[in-house]
Fold this protein.
Amino acid sequence: MALSICTKCGTEIAARTSACPSCGKAVEAPDDAPPIRKLSGKFQAAGVLILASAIVATVAGTWWGPAMAFPGVALLLLGRL
């Protein structure tokens, strides 16, 4: 059984408990999500911003507008994985 230390009172507690039996401080659950999942929202936001600027640039008639569409779509889809 894995033990951890309470950050408030220093008592050793089991890793699966929800609160310290000594002081009652709630124990945070470990974050089991892989780090790449935490970035998904940021990738989606970046993809939407790049796509929006590509559409505006294309409508404005710039040469680089359509070239920005591919990276925007790639980031948007990467965020949905």
